[in-house]
Design goal:
Blueprint (H helix, E strand, L loop, with lengths): L6 H15 L4 H17 L9 E5 L5 H9 L8 E3 L6 E6 L5 E6 L7 H10 L2 H4 E4 L14 E3 L6 E3 L4 E3 L2 E3 L14
Parallel strand pairs: 1-2
Antiparallel strand pairs: 1-3, 3-4, 4-5, 6-7, 8-9
Helix pairs in contact: 1-3, 2-3, 2-4
């Protein structure tokens, strides 16, 4: 736990994350601790817009804690995914240009309960390595026009439309054309 955060405040934030996620688990604890550490390193509060960005390397339970604590959300476009399957989170602060990657250190435990206790109650300084980011800061989210698909009639963001025989088709209606190379 951050020495500057009182135990009651951390417990209140944990309960908020657990309520959002629906249950408590080790994965939620990883995202919780990573988010607390990130906010400490950035000397930042919760993002109101896209001033803070997280690129998570997994889509597991911890991402819910990242959303609650940091304000990075998929809908705002400041929570993105680079799927490596690692318990790693890349954080960026647009204004200062600061960035870092938090990666969970390996640890041994004999049970799920022991693992949970380790992740939930260890100091986050001891849980993560702080590394330089490998991923470039993503551009700000764009707003695209909606286009009506000529196949199904549903509106689709223009960046997802495909052209086929002069028709504008959404990904569901578009027939991908892949011919194998014959050698």
């Amino acid at each position: 736990m951050d020495v500057n955060m009182d135990v009651n405040k951390e417990e209140m934030l944990w309960e908020k994350c657990a309520a959002f996620h629906g249950h408590v688990c080790g994965g939620l604890a990883i995202g919780f601790k990573a988010s607390l550490y990130a906010l400490e390193l950035l000397c930042a509060g919760r993002a109101e817009d896209e001033e803070l960005v997280c690129v998570s390397e997994n889509d597991a339970c911890g991402v819910d804690a990242v959303q609650v604590l940091t304000g990075c959300t998929a809908g705002k476009g400041n929570l993105l995914f680079h799927m490596t399957g690692k318990q790693a989170f890349n954080f960026y602060e647009r204004k200062s240009g600061r960035s870092f990657r938090l990666i969970l250190r390996p640890y041994q435990s004999s049970s799920r309960e022991e693992s949970f206790r380790h992740l939930r109650y260890s100091d986050y300084h001891d849980l993560f390595d702080v590394m330089p980011t490998k991923i470039e800061l993503p551009e700000m989210a764009r707003i695209f026009q909606s286009v009506v698909c000529d196949g199904c009639g549903e509106k689709t963001a223009e960046n997802h439309i495909h052209l086929e025989n002069g028709k504008k088709l959404c990904p569901d209606c578009f027939q991908r054309y892949d011919r194998p190379l014959l050698l």
